[in-house]
Amino acid sequence: QVQLVQSGAEVKKPGASVKVSCKASGYTFTAYYIHWVRQAPGQGLEWMGWINPNIGGTNYPPKFQGRITMTRDTSISTAYMELSNLGSDDTAVYYCARGNAVWGQGTLVTVSS
Amino acid sequence: DIQMTQSPSTLSASVGDTVTITCRASQNINSWLAWYQQKPGKAPKLLIHQASSLDNGVPSRFSGSGSGTQFTLIITSLQPDDFATYYCQQYTSYWTFGQGTKVEI
What we know:
The complex is a heterodimer.
Chain A: E1 3-6, E2 10-12, E3 18-25, E4 34-39, E5 46-51, E6 58-59, E7 68-73, E8 78-83, E9 92-98, E10 102-103, E11 107-111
Parallel strand pairs in A: 2-11
Antiparallel strand pairs in A: 1-3, 3-8, 4-5, 4-9, 5-6, 7-8, 9-10, 9-11
Chain B: E1 4-7, E2 10-12, E3 19-25, E4 33-38, E5 45-49, E6 53-54, E7 62-67, E8 70-75, E9 85-91, E10 95-97, E11 101-104
Parallel strand pairs in B: 2-11
Antiparallel strand pairs in B: 1-3, 3-8, 4-5, 4-9, 5-6, 7-8, 9-10, 9-11
């Protein structure tokens, strides 16, 4: 079945970077964009951008430009989201999604000194 | 940027009720509108896409309508499993979510 499986929880110090992975299975990885969405504790959903796994093109909202990098490795059907210069307000669950319908299980990133 | 304004933020209801959640886009998004249900600790679950198309396996008590800038999600005969938070989302060339509506008892 179609699924996205994300990497495990991370704890980072302020100023560090985090890289979350999202492994796709059950479909042709290069055929669908992968989006990243985050959700801070008790808050709503925030879109962080997308990557086109076929050509590697990306689209980031202004809020994250300069601090976010989305990449992919087509040989292992995996997308990555790296966020740098972390602050406490980056503490959130990070989700990858294939279109609207298929979501990963989420990865908790905690930023704490 | 397209802003999505969802109301109400909280909705108190009982089993068997019909509830209505509205979502307004700051500019025309045609029918590029989805509705999600989210429960604590879980990823959002797609209910409706293209404003009114039910996703596979979603019960028919859920329905969506609207186009342009005004959209509605209606849940008829509310079931215990429906108590959750609901989000609208525009998905034109990028995504924006509404603030969410918590449906509680």
